[in-house]
Amino acid sequence: MKATIVSIGTELLFGQIVNTNAAWLSSELQVAGVDVLYHFTVGDNPERVRAILKRALDESDLVITTGGLGPTQDDLTKEIIAEVIDVPLIQDEKTIQELEAFFLRRGAPMTENNRKQALMPENAQVFYNPVGTAPGFLSEVGEKTIMALPGPPREMKALFDLWVRPWLNEKTQATIFYKILRFYGIGESALETKLLPIIEGQTDPTIATYAKDGECTVRVASKRAREEDAIYAVAETIEKIRELVGEYLYSTENMELHEVVAQKLIARSVTLSTAESCTGGMFADRLLSVPGMSASFLSGWIVYSNESKTELLGVSKELIEKKGSVSEDVAIAMATGARTRAQSDIAISVTGVAGPDGGSESKPIGGCWIAVASKGKISTFYFEARNLGRAYNRSVFTLAMLDVLNKTLDNKL
Amino acid sequence: MKATIVSIGTELLFGQIVNTNAAWLSSELQVAGVDVLYHFTVGDNPERVRAILKRALDESDLVITTGGLGPTQDDLTKEIIAEVIDVPLIQDEKTIQELEAFFLRRGAPMTENNRKQALMPENAQVFYNPVGTAPGFLSEVGEKTIMALPGPPREMKALFDLWVRPWLNEKTQATIFYKILRFYGIGESALETKLLPIIEGQTDPTIATYAKDGECTVRVASKRAREEDAIYAVAETIEKIRELVGEYLYSTENMELHEVVAQKLIARSVTLSTAESCTGGMFADRLLSVPGMSASFLSGWIVYSNESKTELLGVSKELIEKKGSVSEDVAIAMATGARTRAQSDIAISVTGVAGPDGGSESKPIGGCWIAVASKGKISTFYFEARNLGRAYNRSVFTLAMLDVLNKTLDNKL
Description:
homodimer, alpha/beta, Molybdenum Cofactor Biosythetic Enzyme, Chain A, Maf protein, 17 strands, 42% helix, elongated
């Protein structure tokens, strides 16, 4: 089944609202085995809505609209759908009764434009709305189906769950299963080059790569008649991917690196302390965004100045003078200082140059030293990012720290 | 001028990514006086991309695409645009040189698919990309214009600012001037109600309000023939707004609260230390994202556990036992402990319950105590958010701390 999502509302075209409905519906439809061909967004303009709906119906078996079902003058979705599928609008008695009851409960008078919400295309299946006043509906047009859902995401999702999902379960024969794999330490084009032997000539599962600042994602999706076949095909392909680029793979469950690390720390009851200079708390913040990390996280220091490195963590003044604050030795002293003071199993430190100022030839902006101290062991790493500005540098420093900690926990360092 | 935004990428149709680009571009175009007719989203399918681009060009004077400019096999935007406007792709020498220099700096080999990024439609104006490897471009087709921008929002915005905005300024005869005002401590509908006397009956400048988690934004935009008239009209309206809701206004320059606070600290040479429990480094991270904050930020502590509050900041064990770790007294002890140790002008502390667990009737999830210690003075604040989950709670706690610090710096507390 092929579908198009049509989002109706001028506020979307003004950029006042980000269209989260289209993404949410797409993800639900994909899982149900429906191919989404297009998202179309159009304002409250009858001619353009009409043209877009006709085009969507031309190419798709299923068209889902969101928005334009409210009581106000610019809510025109129903009128235009009725026109496009050539049926009259008639009053739905159950909706009128529900609206009357709703306004009675509220003690507010029902205005004439609220009555408009009870008009439905003839022969439509009404999607009664338990969480709002605007019902949706489903109309069949020959072999095709058009559905109208309200614009507010909460109502749209409620009507989808209540009416659309059961309909889809009945209609679709195939099941889709997919996993999202996440990688660190390899660029998108290098990843794709390495995966070419699997990508080329393979139609199912499909493999799609995506890049994000400093990270890569691969989606492995299979569409089969039986769900267990799809699950098996995806698992098999993931194993092939693991053989080729397993060293960079950190999650097959679409988890972010900080979630993976936090879960390992929590699951293994490993305690952690942190000593951050250039990342300024970002590393601790990421880890502590994960529920339950309070059990593992003992103490964190943000030691921006040389004085604070010395006073709070005991990094010797002479060492800083001799080696410079951005140096392997200072990173080591920060990590050991933090570990001793916090009495944690592991301590991780970072010192680097986030920019925009403060770089030099030997200490470029975008470079940092990371040290990890654990019982009887200290490891250090130099990481250098392409300097794409302070925000980017701080963010990729944090990712590099997470990668180092992740590999430490896996005994890969 | 009428425009259509075409977003290209199967990940959008799978719902993996929410299309924020279309909203951002729409908002920028609207301010520039361009009418956005449609957003079209299409996957990496050559035939459909071709059909959609043709349709977009039929109805619009300007078509902006995002996505599909990367080095991988499914990046097809350039090839299809060249086909649609009937010109060949030719290699852009400057881009090849930039790519070679980039890979040389990285010490990584340039793969053949990276070379693809240097191909451009003949006669295109290349949008060189200072923040990534995929350049964009502009091609003219008769009276119409098509522009291709990369998909990653950071790169898309950078190229828009660098290349598209100047082009728009030249094309649109009127000059648009706008300011974005930011508010804290007032909801959107309350703000809109208070501004009604100005909003009603005013056609220029236009006033548009937007809500974001815990904050409100107002855009005041004027479109006049002469730039100075637009600037004057906006300034005049801002003064009216200030009279009505000035107490909640913290920036007329679209600066975020942490930027406003950081700039004040830096400009006044005020030194700061922080003691965070429930925000776990987020507060320090926000402030330290601002360049130059290293001069003001002395030390930060992340004291999640009771032990760390006692050992690192000298919060007495008895006090924690008696009052509980989430209490006014512990917040005070954390702030004074941090200020004494860091010898900073100001210290700010927070202790609260971010959730999802750990709440009680007297200490609900979503509640926190904030203390600010300065020379001879301690102020405390209790802040309670509607509990909308750990991420939301931590984020609004951080905003509340920033608000408290901002008002402290303005001597309003």
